[in-house]
Design goal:
The protein contains 10 helices and 7 strands. With 332 residues, the protein is of the alpha/beta class. It has 2 domains: 39 residues; 273 residues, NAD(P)-binding Rossmann-like Domain (Rossmann fold). The site of magnesium ion (MG) has 7 residues, from loops.
Length: 332
């Protein structure tokens, strides 16, 4: 039975004479199916695509809505349980990929969510706004380029104003462009990569901290690349290492203020970043085949870590790096 037909069934049952009995039976059936011993917690994972993948490349920054196959961001699968009720979150790169999966999960956990993205990504952002609003949560869409301090400050100010405060900042946007050798990494590309991936989280965090209160959380996105860089994206890998270190250092600094700082470190995930210049065609075709799970992860599979990193119940966890790598080693 699909989720919609289950809901329809439950709604129909509620109208009938034997409503309580029928609804009770249906709810038990759903619960039993969910908690069947040995059943995978995410049955859809068994059907996720495996290499070889199609190599439909896109111009940067790419759109999730144009990817083949389309990534699963948890649109139909993520179920919340009120872990972030009443929280107000800003997620950069919230239009697609890992950021979109986090945005969907946060809204379903009860948070209002502002997303930032580039103007070219408006079609992806519209889908995310609709998904957040479908949960009855407030969605704020703020397009703009993170490569200047001036915009980063404005973004935080506008998000906090429209959300009525800021409890969670997810630094997730990044630039990853593959280059076969250091000789081909121009100063311009190096600068853009550093500005987007290192300076922007620094600027955004500084601005957010002017507004954040005790209990607030910063969630950064690092990578398995932080500890095990691939040769052709070494300039990008440096930035993921910087973010990992930033997470640990800032966590120490902010502990006395009761503000936690954690990071999520993904392995290979099926997102626009990879098809829009982040990977070569050869790498994309076999993406994730070197992991023990033998495939790329889908953004839906990492969203629970973004929820955990921000969950107030995880109050002793700060300066932590949560990994999702398909079985390969963790960053240092
Ligand atoms: P993605 O393309 O869906 O997300 C990256 C986002 O960054 C884009 O949607 C875009 O909105 C944003 N962005 C880039 N440059 C920007 C700029 N100048 N101004 C504003 N926004 C900008 O890809 P993703 O893989 O979901 O990436 C999210 C995070 O995950 C990144 O930090 C990336 O380093 C990290 N990561 C991804 C993988 C992977 O295999 N996909 C692996 C490890 C880490
Ligand atoms: Mg995008």
């Amino acid at each position: 039975m699909t989720e919609t037909s289950r809901r329809t069934f439950l709604a129909g049952a509620a109208l009938s004479a034997g409503a309580a009995v029928a609804a009770g039976t249906a709810t038990r059936a759903v619960a039993q199916e969910k908690h069947k011993p040995g059943a995978p917690t995410a049955p859809q994972a068994a059907n996720y695509p495996k290499p070889p993948y199609p190599t439909d490349m896109q111009p940067w920054p790419g759109l999730a809505s144009k990817m083949n196959p389309r990534p699963d961001h948890g649109e139909t699968s993520y179920k919340g349980s009120g872990k972030l009720t009443g929280k107000r979150a800003l997620i950069t790169g919230g239009d697609s990929g890992i950021g979109r999966a986090a945005a969907i999960a946060y809204a379903r956990e009860g948070a209002d969510v502002a997303i930032n993205y580039l103007p070219q990504e408006e079609p992806d952002a519209r889908e995310v706004v609709a998904l957040i609003e479908a949960e009855g949560r407030k969605a704020v869409a703020i397009p703009g380029d993170l490569r200047t301090e001036e915009f980063c400050r404005r973004l935080v100010e506008e998000a906090a104003t429209q959300l009525g405060g800021l409890d969670i900042l997810v630094n997730n946007a990044a630039l990853q462009q593959t280059r076969p050798s250091i000789a081909e990494i121009s100063s311009e590309l190096f600068d853009d990569t550093m500005k987007t991936n290192v300076y922007a989280p620094f600027w955004l965090t500084k601005a957010a901290l002017e507004r954040m209160k005790e209990g607030a959380v910063i969630v950064n996105t690092s990578s398995e690349q932080a500890g095990n860089p691939s040769a052709e994206i070494m300039h990008y890998a440096m930035t993921r290492a910087a973010v990992l270190n930033f997470t640990k250092g800032l966590a120490k600094q902010l502990a006395p203020r009761g503000i936690r700082v954690n990071a999520v470190a993904p392995g290979p995930f099926w997102t626009p970043l990879q098809v829009a210049g982040g990977a070569t065609e050869e790498k994309l075709r076999e993406f994730g085949s070197d992991t023990p799970l033998g495939r790329a992860g889908q953004p839906a599979e990492i969203a629970p870590l973004y929820v955990a990193a921000a969950d107030p119940l995880l109050s002793f966890s700060t300066g932590q790096i949560f990994g999702s790598t398909g079985g390969n080693g963790q960053p240092a």
